Automatic annotation (TrEMBL):
Similarity comment: Belongs to the peptidase C1 family.
N-terminal signal peptide: 1-20
Protein name, as recorded: Aminopeptidase
A GO CC term assigned to this protein in UniProt: cytoplasm
The UniProt record lists the keyword Hydrolase: yes
Taxonomic superkingdom: Bacteria
PANTHER family: BLEOMYCIN HYDROLASE
Organism of provenance: Ancylomarina longa
Keyword Signal attributed: yes
Active-site residue numbers: 92, 385, 407
Taxonomic placement: Bacteria, Pseudomonadati, Bacteroidota, Bacteroidia, Marinilabiliales
This protein's UniProt keywords: Aminopeptidase, Hydrolase, Protease, Signal, Thiol protease
Amino acid sequence: MKKIVFFSVLVFAFCGITKAQNNGTIDAKMLNEIRSGFTLDASAKAAQNAITNAESLRDLSLNREKIGKIDHYFKYRVEVKGITDQKSSGRCWMFTSMNTIRPQAIKKFNLTSFDFSHNYNYFWDLFEKSNLFLDNIIATADQDIQDREVVNYFKSPVDDGGVWNSFFNVAKKYGLVPASVMPETKMSNKTYELTRLINEKLRGEAYKIRMMIAAKDANKDIQQAKVNALKSVYRMLALSLGVPPTEFTWRYKDADGKISELKKYTPIEFLEVVAPDFAKTEQIMIMNDPTRAYYKVYEIKNYRNVKEGINWTYLNLPNKDIKSFALASIKNNEPMYASCDVGKQHNRKAGVMDVNTYDYASLFGVDFDMDKKARILTRQSGSSHAMALIGVDVDENDVPVKWEFENSWGSSAGDKGYLTFTDAWFNEYMFRIVINKKYLNEKAIKALQSKPILLPVWDYMF
């Protein structure tokens, strides 16, 4: 009897160990195996000493072989003047969009420098986003508040973020004004507090609206509740950014020292003077997303800022085609809106981005071997910043070897405000550009005519 009991205990113990090994816990055997994989030898001690006393892992891992190998000269470069500065805001998409048409204003008025009012369009961007948010809340009022779509709306009612279509929507509706007409304020240059408070107000009003709809109270005017909420948002914006003009007078001194006559404009009229072809929508977004089929058009549901505006829509293409089209645009002196994962392998002091700029693998003795598709699907990489694509250098066969961005971080960042990146970096971390469709080939033009594949508001790429 005792032998049987003892055998049963052994079986139970063995089964327990087997389960422990398979339930995801770290047992003694596994821990010993993991520990044995690390030896604090001389090279490991040197690395440990360096890492534990370092101010920055980037400085320690800067690849010596890459330093000084990339210059900032380009065979083809768009004619641009001046560097803008978005300060502590997430308005890169707006600055970049304006930077692609700013050369037109400089040429039109024969100026040495010029900039549009980002503050003016930022006001209307936040105001229109507030309206769209409230409309989305009303449209989904019959869905549970924990529904994935509803959660996504409440997560970020408004923010600084956007893409090219966001600028297109707001500029087409409200026009543009010179920077001097509605200058930046402290709140437009440092936007966190303002957007945080607007979001608090919007979430509260949206919750009330959901409760009104759920109560089915016929005496409650849902649309009026939305208007009242927008009145509060307008007040907050006006007090923080100023009141946007409906018309203005403006004059300038040109490159020859001549002062123009004082002239009156509406913002829409000014846009039409500076960029008469802006509203024709010949500009289209092309993107490299290896997680999805190429030569297909994709549209992100509700990714816009203006209710009646266009959603974020793009044609997915291989990098080879994107580069060919971009090269043609630069050769024709036309800058492009572009966006990328700017934080990856970026040497800020040198203003250079290249693969393996930072050799973290050698520093830690571990591999970092994800490709672009894997980085996207695991959220390790995604587009984080927009800049104007303005330059390309080529080899003897006219094949690109490196490219240039016009950034919006001020002239002290990078190479006097510009960033140089290699063609290899383009493959890994460039995501999308906005380009005139006249530069696309026949296959891409044909693909544009297909019905867009609708992606959800919470899609991993966006």
